[in-house]
Design a protein that fits this description.
binds potassium ion, binds ligand NPW, UDP-N-acetylmuramoyl-L-alanine:D-glutamate ligase, Rossmann fold, alpha/beta, elongated, binds adenosine-5'-diphosphate, single chain
Length: 481
């Protein structure tokens, strides 16, 4: 699992390491690593290093210091380096001196545009972890002129380091070179960071437990249930799907199909779409009501069940069965409208809620807002449930405080019925006995990979996602075995 730390934790760790390291050493490590990445980037984008033109956008703190020192290192490799100083009086003095000594040039913001126009690569050293708010106008004007690819130092300036939120002008980087540990911006704002490269500056031992995590492929592979020689269709966990209605049979077909494809155990279906589900997925045992469904080890409830009294009765029934429940779509709306349905639940039985932003607002009485990690954490606390807050970067919060952020692979998942597919995946893992937080995070990852496989750069459908699930699982397993 990749660890991610808030800027507060990074700063504390840097402080401790700083105290036992010779002066300037940490910045030397960071900026040397940055210069290596910049040379590599120049090679990739221009086919060479020597003779290329790099422009540094330099702000008033150590982020600008990193850029200036990296510029000095690049000079030794024959790169023409020009630093545009946004606040000349506050530019990092040692870094500026080093750049000038190495033959680099420093110019004011007024003289900046002509240098930006001729740059092969622009380096964003405007602001790092001490950033607040979007780019200020002077920086924004210059960034606006950039046509060359941008490498961001630590993080793209203008993007909030702890939430990844953008509410004004910001840098859109092609590569971000960060130091010591990943920060939330790197997983919450991937489209602003571009490719993220982590440079080791010896900070890891000081960082402690990460506050956020992102599953690696090996974690997903390890979490995915695989039958053993002793297994049969029951022992792998039977999942029940309570979804769909006469008006919305598709949700039932998608959620049931997704569960069928996710694991090799048994899938039961209960609801008004039994005939259609049976016709699409003959391996599903389908009945008309949850009470007739037979035993399951987890329920998926909600997609397409409606928010009326029938849906409420179904939800109350499955919550009372003492098995893990993934409550999705209409089920989240019912919980928001009639929280008393949760009385049917034994608080120790796992519950996974999978709201999109609109459903979150119903559940919590407010929008998730720009800080989606805090939003998910608060909902997890309030409902004593794992909350999977959907979005481009889905956030998964457990009531015990664990947070995972999912890795998006494009945005093709933004298609009708895609959420129904996700709930089937979550349910299949819950039935197999997975930890609910891990189940939700692993399901989100396979969902995103299935999206990329199904789409292959062209629109896909939720049905396409269902069909791509085995290939996604195969890809994950083959990369790790
Ligand atoms: N510490 C370490 O051990 C190591 C640190 N390292 C590096 O240091 C970086 C952190 O440096 P830092 O703390 O000096 O602050 P930094 O982020 O450069 O900001 C400086 C100033 O910018 C301003 N400003 C704020 N918001 C703004 C905005 N939106 N738009 C424009 N300007 C804005 C504001 O100053 P103001 O202009 O308000 O006076 C703020 O004080 C870190 O990201 C990493 O790169 C590495 O070398 C590894 C070792
Ligand atoms: N821009 C996007 N990028 C990546 N994934 C997205 C994007 N928009 C939506 N998704 C994902 O697609 C799914 C949509 O679910 P949901 O809103 O419940 O749709 P539906 O109700 O149509 O099934 C979620 O898993 C969500 O994370
Ligand atoms: K930056």
């Amino acid at each position: 699992m990749q660890g991610i730390w808030t800027t507060e934790r990074i700063r504390e760790a840097e402080g401790r390491l700083f105290a036992v390291t010779p002066e300037g050493e940490l910045m030397r490590r960071a900026s040397f690593g940055l210069s290596v990445q910049l040379a590599d980037f120049l090679e990739d984008h221009t086919g060479g290093v020597s003779g290329r033109r790099v422009v540094l956008l330099v702000g008033s703190g150590d982020n600008g210091g990193d850029a200036l020192w990296a510029g000095a290192f690049l000079r030794r490799r024959g790169v023409a380096v020009t630093a545009i100083l946004l606040k000349p009086e506050k530019a990092h003095p040692a870094g500026l001196k080093a750049l000038k000594r190495a033959g680099g040039r420093a110019v004011s913001a007024e003289d900046g545009p002509q240098w930006i126009a001729r740059a092969d690569v622009v380096v964003d050293g405007i602001v790092g972890i001490s950033a607040s708010g979007s780019l200020r106008p002077d920086a924004a004007r210059l960034v606006d002129l950039v046509e060359a690819p941008i490498v961001a130092v630590d993080l793209p300036s203008g993007v909030d380091p702890d939430t990844g939120a953008v509410d004004g002008p910001a840098v859109r980087a092609t590569r971000t070179v960060t130091f010591g540990g990943l920060k939330p911006v790197h997983v919450l704002a991937p489209s602003w960071c571009g490719e993220v490269v982590l440079v080791d500056i010896g900070l890891r031992p000081e960082l402690g437990e990460p506050q956020l995590r992102r599953l690696d492929i090996v974690d997903v592979a390890a979490a995915w249930p695989v039958p053993g020689p002793e297994d049969d269709k029951y022992s792998q966990g039977v999942v029940g799907i309570a979804a769909g209605s006469a008006t919305y049979p598709g949700a039932a077909v998608l959620a049931a199909g997704s569960a069928v494809r996710a694991t090799s155990g048994l899938v039961r279906y209960a609801g008004h779409a039994a005939d259609i589900v049976r016709a699409q997925w003959p391996e599903v045992i389908a009945t008309g009501t949850v009470a007739d469904a037979g035993r399951v080890q987890a329920w998926v409830v909600g997609p397409g069940i409606g928010t009326g009294s029938d849906g409420r009765d179904v939800l109350r029934y499955v919550l009372g069965q003492g098995v893990p429940v993934c409550a999705d779509a209409d089920a989240t709306t019912i919980i928001a409208k009639s929280p008393d349905v949760l009385d049917a639940r034994d608080p120790d039985t796992p519950l996974v809620l999978t709201p999109h932003a609109g459903e979150y607002e119903r559940l919590m009485g407010r929008k998730p807002g720009p800080d989606r990690v805090t939003a998910a954490r608060e909902a997890a606390k309030k409902y004593n449930a794992v909350v999977l807050l959907k979005g481009h970067c889905t956030v998964i919060a457990a009531p015990d405080g664990r947070i995972a952020v999912n890795r998006p692979r494009g945005a093709w998942l933004a298609t009708a019925g895609s959420g129904d597919v996700l709930s089937g995946l979550v349910g299949a893992l819950l039935a197999a006995g997975s930890d609910p937080w891990l189940a939700a995070a692993a399901a989100a990852d396979v969902h995103s990979l299935a999206g990329a496989i199904a789409a292959q750069n062209a629109p896909t459908s939720a049905s396409g996602l269902v069909h791509a699930i085995p290939e996604a699982i195969r890809a994950i397993r083959s990369l790790t075995s």
